[in-house]
Design a protein that fits this description.
Length: 228
């Protein structure tokens, strides 16, 4: 697995964004608790793996998640979890673990952007209450940026952004840790951090893409103290 690197985090101006006047620079918090890992298997090919639930923010047809065979999977399992639909432009595609909830948490995953004309890439959701309330950390190779958002009553608000150039159709590593109100994200060693206390309770964790972003995920893990 991988850890947090030492890149420079900045906040990008954005109309309507929630942000401070100066960029924030924070070390990733150390999250205590047990680590749970997911890899995907042949018996789930063509369907949503056991213990996961598909959801969506926004209306329309899409948000199709399924296990696919992929010999390039970093876990060497030969299988990945993928979002394969060309969903509407405004839709967020969600796949959430059903039986775990965390407040302070660290998430890690390997991901590969396969396709998407409107959007590409993807990332995590955490402190997920329902399909209209959660945090997001995601990387988009079309926009060359790593961003942190919150979704409240179905509306997404940007909290922080940093420019990062990474190639599509290659595996990359994404991590996020949140402790209290501090969020620190990392993609391939480039970090981004911000503070936000809008969602302060424990919630579920999962994966996220937007619109027609078709993305593969592998080696998903979560560390923290699960709250039943």
């Amino acid at each position: 697995m991988f850890g947090f690197g030492f890149g420079i985090a900045v906040l990008s101006p954005c109309c309507g964004c929630t942000r401070n006047d100066e960029p924030e620079h924070h070390s990733a918090p150390v999250i205590e608790g047990e680590t749970r890992e997911w890899t995907f298997a042949a018996e789930d090919v063509g369907k949503v793996p056991s213990g996961w639930e598909v959801a969506q923010t926004g209306k329309g047809d899409g948000s199709k998640w399924e296990v696919l065979a992929d010999e390039s999977a970093p876990s060497r399992s030969g299988f990945v979890l993928a979002q394969t639909a060309e969903s509407p432009r405004s839709m967020f595609n969600l796949c959430v673990a059903e039986d775990v909830r965390y407040r302070d948490v660290e998430l890690k995953v390997s991901f590969k952007s396969v396709a998407g004309r409107v959007d590409q890439g993807g990332g995590f959701v955490w402190r997920y209450v329902d399909a209209n309330h959660y945090y997001i950390c995601r990387f988009n190779p079309l926009e060359d940026n790593l961003r942190i958002y919150k979704v409240i009553v179905g509306k997404r608000t940007q909290l922080a952004s940093v420019d990062v150039e990474l190639a599509a159709d290659q595996w990359h590593q994404l991590a996020v840790a949140m402790q209290g109100d501090l969020i620190v994200c990392d993609v391939d060693g480039i970090q981004l951090s911000v503070r936000d206390d809008t969602l302060s309770d424990a919630g579920r964790v999962g994966l996220w893409t937007k619109a027609d972003a078709q993305t593969r995920f592998d080696d998903f893990s979560v560390t923290g103290r699960s709250i039943k």
